[in-house]
Amino acid sequence: MRVRLAMTKTLFPSSENKAKETCDDRCRGIPRLQRPNRNQLSLRPSDLESSVGPDDPVRAVWEFVEGLELSPLYANIRAVVGHAGRTPVDPAILMALWLYATLEGVGSARALARLCERHDAYRWICGGVSVNHHSLADFRVEHGELLDDLLTQSAASLMAEEVVDMKRVSQDGVRVRASAGAASFRRKKTLKQCMKQAEEQVEALRKELDEDPGATSRRQKAARKRAAQERKVRVAKALAHVPEAEAKKKAKDKKKARVSTTDPEARVMKMADGGFRPAYNGQFAVDTKTQVVVGVDVSNSGSDQDKMPPMVEQLDERYGKVPDEILVDGGFASHFAIEEVSRGEQGCTVYAPVPKPKDEKRDPHIPLPNDSKEVASWRVRMGTEEAKKIYQERASTVECVNAIARNRGLQRFLVRGCRKVKAVLLWYALAHNLMRSLALRGAVPLAVG
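Predicted structure:
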């Protein structure tokens, strides 16, 4: 009975007991807790070299950059020993930062600049050198020709080691969202109206600026004038690209051609999800044996029909040879393209699916009366089991490379214009070839990259 009463007092305390317990708790005093003290000083001996492990990928990136031929970048540096001038950042640092950032899926110069202050791997690359997002953004797109040469070197070095033979190449396009909104696209008539308004605004601001004696107001109006002039330049560039957009339209639809005032070179394309958005069409050519990228191109055309001959020509210019075989999907396989790359002794053997005929009873692999020699051979060839097996390599090579690039952040371009877009694609190709070279040479498992 006493036990039952004790349990009752514990489980269902009266109001008097609650007050007594509260009083007892207060009498115990303030609880002692370990609280953060962020003002205390501490000395921690550390160095950047020990901040990354011996097998960290960032070390492989730096070793790769040290082996590159970067003399064109050093030749443009005007600050020399014994003379005045600000000391610039070593181009090798900027090169390594962007390669490592590309592998990590970082595509923003501002984000990369923040990582250089907070992340050990990026701090290790910098080695105490301060970088800003302006320098990073400019470096990424200003050296397209050098990046193109480095791509050639990266593949040619593997060819010299007989790792890459480029006997069989696969090509595919990847449509990537442009840095322009759909609302920025306007027709020629609207662009002319915008141009007239911009010119009037610039002139009005110029007069107002000349007549205003106030210094503060003058600075504000100078900024407004500068913004109006920049808008005028953008509209002028858009107008200059109207004829190109009209040329891709049918005669009855030429007046419907629209150009973006944000990125005049971008075009609306059908994307992989079936939607239509401003985009660029990047092209990768990949050695099927090793998954090494051997060619890169970019276009503002959503169609792939005319993209195979320029890529084969590019490979010939880069390496002095054309592939024996090239694998492409049906979008590339126009009769003109097949004839262009198949002609002559140095021609490529094309592997591409033959489209289904409208007449379901007709065998698509039987040549038609008006087929050229090259097209007829392609039809017959694609009807064989051997050709179908070879074509399957396309999915595991160039489509795999495109997927890897997507996973590394190739979802939307943050730059504008074909020249800058191609530079970004070259960064992805160089970063990919870096990882493939490590894998092929046995430095990392073959599954990497």
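Summary: The longest strand covers residues 276-287.
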